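Could someone model iron/sulfur cluster with this protein?
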Amino acid sequence: MKPFAYVRAATLQEAAAAYASHPGSRYIGGGTNLVDLMKHGVETPETLIDLTRLPLHDIEELDTGSLRVGAGASNTDLAVHPLVRSRYPALSQALLAGASGQLRNVATTGGNLLQRTRCPYFQDVSKPCNKREPGSGCAARDGVHRDHAVLGHSAHCIATHPSDMAVALAALDAEIELYDGEHGTRRVAAADFHRLPGDHPERDTVIRPGEIVTAVLLPPPAPGSVSLYRKARDRASYAFALASVAAVLVLDDGRVRHVALAFGGLAHRPWRAATAEERLTGAAPTGEAVREAVDAELAAARPLPGNAFKVDLARNLACDVLATLVRSASASASASGAPPAHHRP
Ligand code: SF4
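Reply:
Sure, complex below.
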């Protein structure tokens, strides 16, 4: 590993000042991805700025009813928090579907968002990779790309984003809070935080140089909303998604009042399914309507020779997740005296 300097920050201001005075530095939280990449020579920062002493570990309900999750909160603490389990089950399920128990104990909320792709060519410095070394080429395109993107990829990069948590946050309309010493604090919708690769696959997110992820904000769930995360992978645990789905559903008088659908494992960012959502909103969520909406979304897919199976996998997952949520929302509505949705899976 290349030698590096180490700075421990106690406040946000200290961290921002350290970044300003150490060009080429990287922030570190749990380090579960960054340290691996440093060992492989993929990341070679001159300086690491340790953020773990910053007061960013709390998970608290705000007066607005939103939940504010400090960027330093561990994936385990977030997954098991009572308000997350009761109000945002898709988020808890997504977190528990990621990594291993040991990693979740150390990995932070901010670090989870900022983890890099697990494209094997990105992690192998002997191979060309536009994300690691812009302009060097993409070894995956003509190589092994079974795990790679089918939506939104570019000629420069076909990588997928590995986070399960980010997919749930996109469906839950969460916001990411960012801080830098010059501009202060801003918020970005979780669904807009990660980028498609375009001409600049080296940039995973819209974060500006030196900005720090300080929190994730989850809006209060709509009355009657239900949510679910489901992930398809090669092993039952400790594997990245071949495809995953996070969905939130609210029914009103047997019709869809609100639906949010996000795919993971299919693109360079969590893929919020705007076309499917638009088709389903206001409709009776029959099996046929759900299939048509999901098919309309996945019509944009451009699979590569080795990963066409992902489109069928994602379609089946999405239809199954939405059917499950329709049953769940209908059952809640019947319990409260409202008419059920007529769903035929
Ligand atoms: Fe690099 Fe992206 Fe190509 Fe993988 S898919 S080799 S990350 S450019």
